[in-house]
Amino acid sequence: MATVFEAQALTKCYRRRTVLDNLHLSIPQGSVYGLVGENGAGKTTLIRLMAGLDFPTSGDFSLFEKAENQVEQRRRMGFLIESPALYPDMTARQNLELVRIQRGIPEKNQVDELLERLFLQDTGRQRVKNFSLGMRQRLGIAVALLNEPEFLVLDEPINGLDPTGILEIRRLLQELNQQKGTTILISSHILPELESLATRYGFLHHGRLVQDISAGELGERCCQYLLLRVPDPERAAALLESELHTAKFAVYPDRSLHIYDLMGRTMEISACLAHHQIPVQELTTKGDDLETYFQRLIGGGAE
User: Fold this and answer.
1) C-alpha triplet 88, 93, 98: angle, nearest 5°
2) What CATH number belongs to 3-213?
3) I want to staple 258 with a disulfide (CB 3.0 to 4.6 A). Which of 2, 22, 225, 273 is the partner?
């Protein structure tokens, strides 16, 4: 599978502090890659290396499967890193027009299209210094999209947005990925929003990649289920099939049953088992959301 970014033993140190530690990471072309980690895990440092704003202490990385001529490869990328770099005394249109000219982008209509797509067309002569945090964030995303990037890198893209704004940006990113095939890297503290977008995840902890996993695999590990404990799990399993008409369950080595499709029907399950003289020792809802899964992965969750 083609990649847009690949790191080999990538390390970045600041004086005595190691921020990225022998990192191996691959981002497949066409994916929406969710980068998850605590503050200080190395997410923004990694993005700064991608953008050429900093340099590795050791190790190497490639862009679009090329380790050389990275300045040219970055022309195919768009970045929003930390707070967007904008000219505060200019309007949204002037900011975009200036960046368009600096980058040598010939299509003047790009500016009008992006102002409309990011819901900034009515800002008129209002200067950026008077924008709300959410409006500045929208403009920063517009700047990142100005060159129609093949690989879009976003650091906390929905910071400061209200719920409506979050929904609008989510739709825009889904459209870019699904209709234009844009590869997107999103680093965000708002993990529920990543769950609605990402097709693959990388979990960073103390500068190391502790897990790289597809959204499908993560869903299987995090999906909610009913945990059932009874003295006779084999007989209970037979009743689930014959009386409650489900085969979506599994009997685990600890003799517990995990039931995957009767959520909200615990009373019905209990009544069925009681009718057949099978006492229920435990019947509870289990499963992790993305945040809980990450905490368990790095050893920070409760057992």
Assistant:
1) 75
2) 3.40.50.300
3) 225
Q: Please name the fold of domain 224-286.
A: Alpha-Beta Plaits (3.30.70)
Q: What angle do CA 277, 280, 286 make, to 5 degrees?
A: 150
**Average pLDDT for residues 231-240, to the nearest whole number?**
96
Average of pLDDT values for 157-163? 87
Q: What tokens appear for 292 in the block?
A: 């809980």
- pLDDT tens sequence across 240-254: 999 999 998 999 889
* φ/ψ (deg, to 5) at 199: -105, -15
Share the mean pLDDT of the chain: 92
Structure tokens at 205: 């902890």
Domain ranges of the chain: 3-213, 224-286
Amino acid residing at 284:
T
Contact between 148 and 181 under an 8 Å Cβ cutoff? The reply is: no
**What tens digit of pLDDT does each residue of 12-45 get?**
999 889 999 999 999 999 999 999 999 889 999 9
Q: CA 205 to CA 211: how far, in whole Å?
A: 9
Instruction: Say whether 224-286 and 3-213 share the same fold.
Output: no
